[in-house]
Design goal:
673 residues, alpha+beta, Lambda Exonuclease, Chain A, five-stranded mixed sheet, four-stranded antiparallel sheet, 16 helices, globular
């Protein structure tokens, strides 16, 4: 921010290094937010902050002073500030394309003190750029409970107010002080003790005195202290119980049950190091190219055993972080490494934080066990000694950045071992599979009166990754139409490994992991705030966001390029002959011929004819032969001009390779070294 920009009295009172950081934050809007008049603020300019934006700022964003993540999990409790009505006067104004939000928050422990003044700068999409609290020390660190409460207010406002039409609910356009109504039932007045706190404490003390003086004054006998043998027997009984008692975690002989066997197995998240936070992107990619993940077979087996409880266990998210799961195999293989999806990267790197729950996922989790039970009943009648077992997370033995978690492992004497994946589509209603396959989003299609999984669907990518990661010979894809009344109908589609599909997907997954996931794991490249200075690209740079275009220009004459315009037709009229003049013909120099490059040949457009000049010989390129079409006579002599009639055009030959597009430009082939 320029020095001439006005600053509030509060900003001028800051220490020099804090003021420098303050000026850098407000430079995004060019003015100190505390100087914006209140009459210029309104509730209509509030940004669309969502829950993922809130968690990204409070938990994953980095502090300017410590260069570490805020990890302000305690600030997530600031939701209670909003619920209790502590947040007030939240308004905003749009400046320089950014939303400047100002609000006030009452102190939780000092109700009579003036409210804390907070400002937040966010993008229209809801990404938090910076924040500041004027009336608390934690606000200087850009993350405090007052800032968090304003963020919760914005998220609730966007979710409960902005999406509702003003005509849907009465007075819904008015700002709310408490987004949710209180659900505590009202007590009758006769049951409420209106005594002061001092009186209540005195009454409680009198009650305790009466209890102590009631009855005989004999002191109770000391209970017997259990012997060591009795305590050992108690611990052994607790150890054999179905549910482990937390008391065992304090005993040396029994605490091992509370520590996963894979506790000491290295994770990908352990690769993070603070030294990677300040290096350039090129250096960070070079470090990522050196990373190799190596786990032994015993390590991978321990991970599978410890994660059989899946989301209910602590090891599940720990070993998933930084690995590409089967459920997002299609998204990861289809994303552009030059401009990857940040939400996808956060899902891979921080699976415990960025989880989502929808009506479809709740429906699937609710009916998954019932679907597996129906599947077991059906398969037991068709296979010998059929078994279904629970499984955990598998890590690929060679590509250890890939993992898969099937819903179950199945086996029988006739087919061997396989895995299974269960899907309970929420949109599959009335158990009508015929109507379901007509939907565009359906995962099944009908072939020869049977339902099979679509190969272009994301579930097919998921099943194939499960097969190659687990090494099983088949995967039973189960689609269940379940209802709340207990009725269920399933369709089983047995899928074999598709080697061609896997060989096509694995290189894309490896590229996405090494150049998108590892930069975030090592140096938090996508979640850490950075001040990037864009420099113009040079001729030797390979840039993902800027495509280099090669245009082959054929020099015509001295200062003229033979390049037809967009709407120019090189087709002369009936009474007009195309004669080459002194300054209009593409005349090369003495030792120069208009020879296109190896990978680019000049192919005329649809309405364009190739006119050779007086002294120019039509010399074909290496991959091009000058072959006239059926109704065309390509004649060029020393004293003869190329004349085109009404019904004669220079059509390209059948074997002509290079095509000139609208801009005659070819995108540069990008490669990752």
């Amino acid at each position: 921010m320029a020095e001439k920009s006005p600053l509030s009295n509060y900003a001028r009172s800051l220490q020099p290094h804090v003021l420098l950081r303050y000026q850098k934050k407000i430079s995004a809007v060019g003015i100190d937010p505390f100087l914006i008049p209140e009459d210029q603020l309104d509730a209509d300019s509030l940004p669309a902050v969502e829950s993922i934006d809130l968690v990204s700022y409070l938990v994953l964003d980095t502090s300017f002073y410590t260069q570490e993540s805020f990890k302000a999990f305690k600030s997530l409790q600031a939701y209670n500030y909003v619920k209790s009505g502590f947040v007030e006067s939240v308004k905003a104004k749009v400046l320089a394309g950014k939303h400047v939000v100002l609000g006030k928050v009452k102190h939780s422990q000092k109700w009579n003190d003036p409210s804390a003044h907070v400002w937040i700068i966010a993008t229209p999409g809801g990404t938090i750029l910076s924040a500041h609290c004027r009336d608390c020390l934690a606000g200087l660190g850009e993350c405090c409970s007052h800032v968090a409460s304003i963020l919760f207010y914005l998220e609730m406002y966007h979710r409960h107010v902005s999406d509702i039409s003003p005509t849907d609910l009465p007075n819904s356009w008015l700002p709310r002080t408490t987004p949710f109504p209180r659900t505590n039932p009202m007590a009758e007045m006769r049951n409420i003790d209106c005594s002061s706190a001092k009186k209540l404490k005195s009454n409680l003390g009198n009650s305790m005195t009466e209890l102590q003086t009631d009855g005989n004054n004999e002191s109770p006998t000391n209970p017997c202290t259990p012997s060591a043998t009795e305590m050992t027997g108690l611990f052994e009984k607790l150890d054999t119980a179905k549910f482990k008692s937390p008391l065992l975690s304090f005993e040396d002989q029994h605490f091992g049950a509370f520590v996963p066997s894979s506790h000491n197995v290295a994770t990908i998240s352990d690769l993070a190091d603070q030294k990677y936070l300040d290096i350039s992107y090129d250096d960070l990619l070079e470090e990522c190219s050196k990373v190799e993940v190596k786990l032994t077979d015993s390590d991978r087996k321990m991970i599978e055993v410890d994660t059989r409880d899946q989301a209910r266990g602590s090891s599940f998210f720990k070993h998933r972080a930084g690995r590409i799961g089967a459920s997002i195999s299609k998204q990861a293989s289809a994303t552009n490494p030059a401009q990857p999806s940040k939400s996808l990267i956060k899902t891979v790197c921080y699976p415990k934080i960025f989880t989502f729950t929808t009506a479809a996922t709740e429906h699937g989790c609710k009916h998954e066990k019932h679907a597996i039970a129906e599947y077991r009943k059906m398969m037991e009648t068709k296979h010998n000694n059929f078994k279904v077992e629970q499984c955990g997370m598998f890590v690929h033995p060679e590509h250890q950045f890939l993992h898969a978690t099937p819903d179950f492992i199945c086996s029988c004497d006739c087919c061997g071992q396989g895995c299974g994946e269960v899907k309970c589509p929420h949109c599959l209603k009335d158990m009508d599979f015929q109507e379901y396959v007509k939907r565009r989003s359906a995962c099944l299609k009908e072939e020869e009166k049977t339902f099979v999984l679509r190969k272009e669907h994301g579930y097919y990518y998921q099943v194939q990754q499960q097969l190659f990661v687990t090494g099983k010979s088949y995967c039973d894809f189960v689609v269940c139409a379940a209802q709340d009344n207990g009725r269920a109908e399933i369709i089983v589609n047995r899928i074999k490994p598709d080697l061609q599909h896997w060989n096509n997907v694995v290189p894309k997954l490896a590229q996405f992991w090494r150049y998108c996931i590892l930069p975030e794991i090592l140096g938090r490249w996508y979640t850490q705030k950075r001040d990037l200075v864009l420099q113009p690209a040079t001729g030797t740079d390979i840039c993902f966001c800027r495509r280099r275009r090669h245009v082959h220009n054929v020099q015509a004459g001295k200062n003229q390029t033979a390049k037809p315009s967009k709407n120019q037709a090189a087709k002369p009229s009936k009474n007009q002959t195309a004669k080459s003049s002194k300054n209009q013909t593409a005349k090369p120099s003495k030792n120069q011929t208009a020879k296109p490059s190896k990978n680019q040949t000049a192919k005329p457009s649809k309405n364009q004819t190739a006119k050779p000049s007086k002294n120019q010989a039509a010399k074909p390129s290496k991959n091009q032969t000058a072959k006239p079409s059926k109704h065309q006579a390509a004649k060029s002599s020393k004293n003869q001009a190329a004349k085109s009639s009404k019904n004669q055009t220079a059509k390209p030959s059948k074997n002509q390779a290079a095509k000139s597009s609208k801009n005659q430009a070819l995108p540069h082939q990008l490669t990752l070294s």
